[in-house]
Structures are given as structure tokens and as C-alpha cells.
Design brief:
Elements: H1 2-10, E1 15-17, E2 23-25, H2 31-43, E3 53-58, E4 61-66, E5 69-73, E6 78-80, E7 104-110, E8 114-115, E9 128-130, E10 134-137, E11 140-142, E12 146-149, E13 152-154, H3 156-159, H4 162-166, E14 172-174, H5 181-188, H6 197-205, H7 209-218, H8 226-231, E15 233-234, E16 248-253, E17 258-259, E18 262-263, E19 269-271, H9 285-308
Parallel strand pairs: 6-19
Antiparallel strand pairs: 1-2, 3-4, 4-5, 7-16, 8-13, 9-12, 10-11, 10-14, 12-13, 14-15, 17-18
Length: 310
Amino acid sequence: PEAVTGWAQDLGQDTFVGSTGRVFPTAMKASPLLRAWLAKLSAQGVTLQRRWRWTGFDGAASAFATPDGIQHVTADVTVLATGGGSWRRLGSDGAWAAQFADEVTPFAPSNVGVLVDWSPYMAAHFGTPLKGCKVQAGGCVSRGECVISSRGLEGGGIYSMSAPLRQGAALLIDVKPDLTLAEVRARLSRPRGKASMAQHLRKSLRIEGAKAALLNEYARPFGDDLASKIKALPVAYAGLRPIDEAISTAGGLTWDALDGWMLRRRPGVFAAGEMLDWDAPTGGYLITGCLASGKAAAEAALAWWAREGA
């Protein structure tokens, strides 16, 4: 992370560390960083062939679909960084995977929201954040924020749960993570007199708004186990959102297909980035992983060329 921060600052782009420890550009968008990076590459003499789409190998050459028709390039060393499959409108549709057949794990959505079939009661809370909660799934835990949307739950707190949720793990939300189960029970046991349960939850535990709505959705009828549900509220979900709505993808070129960072079946051809079969939480780590694997693949390519090249 420190190296990535330094790299961004060298390009004139300041960063800051968020409450979750993730690093973000101060501008809160990537386009200024991208423009600065492209300008530096151009100044270094890098040739960028825009609107060229790699379509696979043709013998020893790489074939590209271009505005001027099919072009072939035979290179001494090639580093592929063709991306995952979650940004179809920008060209990252994973179509390249067809070139590798059994060497690819099918793409699946990652860093994505979950589908929830809410009751009509929840409509009033669409767009409302769930703050100060803890999300758990399959051993993974997150204190990130979630947002209730018309189609389910989204936000950093949910995105980081993508891997276990993709496997069907139970989704649990701790509405009062800073209190123990015993403390929650003690507060609920206070006399409430004529107060309604909603009033009692608000006064004893400060549970109201979106949190109270979530409890009404999944904890009714309220019973003796209400404290347990407050600490681990099971949320029924219907899978992850579609891959086209995902920030990134799991799956891709398998590690068994690689010798280090080089394709076993294609000496001199290396691979990096999200086209590889790895899955990382979003919010900076994804970019860090892509940059780190790109650097590693480049160093491996240079070492291979120094050893094997003419």
C-alpha cells in the first residue's frame, strides 16, 4: 500500500486513508490519476494502440481487432493484462477466456451487493445506510457500512463478504456490535411499562430507523431470543447481484496454467491483473493487487528475456 500511495503522489495525485484503512485518491475519482499516468507513459515513449482488442493467438503472433481491420503482432515478450469480466460496457467482458479453454475458472461476481426480496414495509428505507453494524458471513467479518436498496443490500460492508456469500454462507448482521450479548439482554430486560417495543428498543439500545426496520423484517415475532437476533440477525438473501453490476470478478486464468507468471503453454507470454484467478476485497486492495501482479509479471518477463532472448 505504501508503494501504491507513493506512486500516486509521484503522479501528482494525493491520497488519504479511510476509516477502514483503505486508501483513496483525495479527488475521490480515478480519472485524474489515469490522465497523469497516461501522460507519463507517453513522455517515456510508450506506444498506446487505442481501440485495439486482443482476440487471441494466431501461431506465434497476437491478433488484434482494430479500426483498420485485423492486425498481427509478433513480440519477443508479451504481458497480457486483459482484465476480468465485470465491465462489459468498457470492453472488459472476459471474452478472452475462450482462448484458454480448460485453463480458466469461470468468472463470478465479486465486490457486489446481495439480492433481497424485501417486504413492502421496507420501501420507506430504500437508500438508507446501516451504520454502526457488523456484517458476518462464513467466518468473514466487516464493520463497513451497508445501504438498504430496492433490490437488496450493498456497500463496502457487504462487498467484502462476496466470497462466502457466493458459496451460500449465512448472512448475519450484528446491530449492536459494541455491546455483548449479555449487555443487550440486560438492557432489554429493563421495565418498559406502557412503552411499545419500538420505543423500548430506541430508549434502551438506541435502535431506530433502518436498524429497527431490519429487526421488524427478520426478528418478528419478538420473543425471548430477541437479544440473540440483535447480535446475529439472519438476513435472507437470494444470491449476489449480476456480474455486470459487480465491481470485480473472481475466476480467470488458473495458477496451474502459469509457471511463475508465464503461461506454461506459451513461453515468453506472461499474465497479470484481474485476468488471473484471484479474489480481493475492493477499496484499494484490488488496484494494489493488479499493480503488484503487473510489476511481478514484468520483472519475470525481463528475467526470462535476459535468460532466453537473442
